[in-house]
TrEMBL record:
Pfam families: Aminotran_1_2. One of its GO terms (biological process) is amino acid metabolic process. Residues 2-246 form the Aminotransferase class I/classII large domain. The keyword Signal does not apply. Gene3D superfamilies: Aspartate Aminotransferase, domain 1, Type I PLP-dependent aspartate aminotransferase-like (Major domain). It comes from Methylobacterium frigidaeris. This is 8-amino-7-oxononanoate synthase.
Amino acid sequence: MSPETIAKITELVKSKRPDLMILTDDVYGTFVHDFRSLMAELPNNTIGVYSFSKYFGCTGWRLGTIAIHEDNIFDRMIARLPADVTAALDKRYGPLTLEPRKLKFIDRIVADSRDIALNHTAGLSLPQQVMMSLFSLAELMDDRKAYQDACMEIVNRRVWSMIEGLGLQITPNPNFDAYYGLIDFEFWARKNIGEEAVDYLKRNVHPLDLAFRLAEVHGIVLLNGGGFEAPNWSLRVSLANLPDEVYADIGRGVRAVARGYRDAYEAAARAAGAEAAKQVEPVPAE
């Protein structure tokens, strides 16, 4: 998110919507130079979510945090709820405390994650606590941010390798974290194989065919972007977990599949032209 966008949101909250509730997922922020969270600008309105999994490469450990400022709008809004809603909340959180109305919002989140009754089981196991502590200490001790610089250099090198493989010329976006990438194949293909070929493709080929062809012909396994609210004719690429040289192969593989689609369109067009010629061929008089 650009500084200009953050400034607009900040101005909106301060001038018109002081009650605006903001949830920000900053898990990719550590891959962006000079990243600044909305929580730094609007701490009273923001729920901050962060996971150690991406930055430290520990997805399976399920290590993350939720942060809420001590003086926050969420507690104040709960306190102003109607009497019937407050009574329902008293009943819900009554098993935890004799004074459920004093229960902080963040404590309610923890309790809800364990269906209230199992609130005592919430939290991390000892190995998880140790691992999170080690990760945190490593980052605090790295004054020169050498680890962060190395992580950003790796993912950016890979994304530019893929971009070159696709034959693209684009301007770098300083706010792009380069952890995941989306290849908008339809947009790219309209510029590279032509509008008519893409229209033919959309009429005759399922969007998943792109991912399957990459896997079957080129040994490249990517996810279809449609499952991530991206265009159906798109591919989602993780820039964090494959060898560097693979990313150029991804770009070249996509171009090769596109050439195959173009060839199929041209063959279909020739066949349609030949069929049309037959239909208008004059019949000799007897």
